[in-house]
Amino acid sequence: MDCDDNRAYLFAVRKIFFSMTAGMWTFSFYLGSFVGPTFGGILVQHTSFAFSSEMFSAVFVFLAAVDVVSILLCRIPGGGGGRDQARGEETTLIQRR
Hints:
By secondary structure, this protein is mostly helical. It contains two helices and two strands. It has helices at 3-46, 49-75; strands spanning 83-84, 89-90.
C-alpha cells in the first residue's frame, strides 16, 4: 500500500466518522427538541407552574454538580480515570499540565 492509497483510505474513514458524528449530533438535538417540550408540557399541565419550575431548577443544579464532580475526578491522578496496569500510565480524559 503506497502513500496515496493510505491517504485515500484515511480520508474515507474520516468522512464516514464525521458524517456519523454529525448525524448523531443532529438526531440528539431534534430528539431533545421534541422530548423536552413534550414532557415539560405534561409536567406543567399535571402540576403547578411553580412546582415544575422548581423541579427543572433542581434537575439543572444536580446535573451541574455531576459535571463538576466528574471534571474534578478526572483531574485527580488515578481518581476516576483508572490506570493502565501494563504500562502504569495515567488514562484520564483530562491530562494534567
